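User: I'm preparing a small set of examples for a lab meeting where we compare how different chains pack in three dimensions. I only have the primary sequence for this one, and I'd like the structure in token form so I can line it up with the others. Please keep the answer compact; I'll paste it straight into my notes.
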Amino acid sequence: MQFFIDNILLIFALPLIAMAIAFIGKFFKFSFSKGTVVYSSVTSTLVGLIYAVALYFYYHTGVTVEPTEFSMNWLRLGSLNVSLGILIDEVSTLFLLILMLISVVVQWYSASYMADDENFDLFYFLLNLFVFSMTALVLSSNMVQTYLFWEIIGICSYLFVNYYFKNAKVSEASKRVLIIDRIGDMMFCAGLLILIYFIFNYPIDASGELLSYTALTDSASDFYVYFSDTGFYLTSLLFFGAALVKSAQFPLHVWLIDAMEAPTPISALIHASTMVSAGIFLCIRLLPIFNLSEMMADTMLYFGLATAFICAFFAVAQTNIKKMLAYSTSSQLGLMFTALGIMVPATATYYLLTHAFAKALLFLIAGALIKYAGNGSLEYADMKISRKSNPVTALCYFIAILSLSGIFFGGFFAKELLFENLQITNSLAVVSIFCIICFMTAYYLFKSYFLIFESGCDVVKIPNSLKTTLVVMMFFVIGATYFVSNDLSFGGFCDAFEILSEPKSVLSLIIISVLGALTAYGVVLKKWESLPPVVNGFARNGAYIDKIFAFISDYIFEPIASLAKKIDKYVIDAFVDFQATATKTISWFVAYSQGGNIQSYLAHSVFVIILILVFCLVMAIGIGEV
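Assistant: Understood. Below is the structure token output for the 626-residue chain.
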């Protein structure tokens, strides 16, 4: 095991080498074959996966293992000490495992899916850049380092959304993604600046390590002492706001809908399972701060629950498969924030694990359906295929929705864990809303299954290479069930048998999800009435939130920006231009006066002396009159 710890830098170096190969192939005359680009990328990620598996089982054996930290001093200003380092512990190894498992499947899937793309090398360059950046983020040892790679993965998201930049709609969507992402980044930066100000101005023990995750528990208490409850809460809220934006939570969830313009393999990797989990990662790292504020816990609970409910409601009415999955992602992440709000991070991380595999599988299947069944269309109506002629694809889809809806496999245990913890809050409203969310989740997932696989008879040929990756990911979904009985981060998830020993709780949750599936069956195959047209249109358009943002942009932000542009052009630029003109004029006058003629110099001197004398005389007369 010591070998993996001592040589941890290898998992950073290999993606950089794969990036270099793809970069050379794209931007230089010398070009590698597509096979070389793919194999270098997959190999680098496979090595990372070996590291992730080894480190994961080392730090999750049930025996407490001290975190391993490597750090190098990067910046020192007074009491502020910022380092670049690597922190290996229960949290980082779990997120690293999820990242590598999904990345290796998506990279292999993309080799076939993107084979005909003219920017194939660029695609893999960006893919490896993201894997490198996300690896660096989850292994970051301090908040400053996390912020640096937080920014880079945001840029990766923008570049992927803008991948088909020749399409005007895609270009506009990428701009919206970037602008909304900037909001979260600014909140993260503002929170960091407050902490840095605190370090410079308040004497606390180990103040220079306030930004380090290993020292955060002790230094957070000191930080709390010097702040009022309101000030501490608002500072915590800045970090939480950054997490909300990155994890596409209401009302800034709309960026994730725009992000669906990216190639579908990227939706599976970045926008469904890894990048959006960065918000959960940040909140888990900052729990020592959040735990000190009861208001912060309530905020996480209610924001998460509200997002889960609202986005599930929006997903119910969708006819576009990628939009449905995007709203579903926001909804499920909302439930993870709910778990953090009631201070059960183990439940949140297990929920994240099961959701990541299931949602990545659904996106990979969606990509195959869009390309080979819908001919580029994202609508259910255009991708109806026969379950009997495509049993592997249908089975993989069915396994994924069984887990995600909480009926079976790891998703069932994740939802049951959250259900039991929510009951401890003794809030009937919270538990009821969670039950409604579970019903809607099962409804829209099974609705999509019945619309695609049970309503058509088209024979669609999906390449075996894609089917292979789908089957591998399906086994990840099934295998996630194992982790519920394994002793993991934060003292372990739980024992599966303890969950099953509460039959009333288990049956109630299963019955709710099964009712959702049966309702979907009735609506799709038995032609029951669905939502009223007005409600259906309201939900399908996401409560018109994107239109509200567009109105604010067009009629409020744009006029302000236009006014600022005019002020910049006609006031600020004019003042700068005046200074330049005045300097140029004076310079010309001085240069013209330097003719090298002694008589001219003498005449100028006499002229200046006369002016001074006249000025003094005038001033003297004026003073005398006074």
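A couple of notes for your slides: The longest strand covers residues 68-77. Residues 220 and 412 are 36 Å apart (CA to CA).

User: Perfect, thanks.
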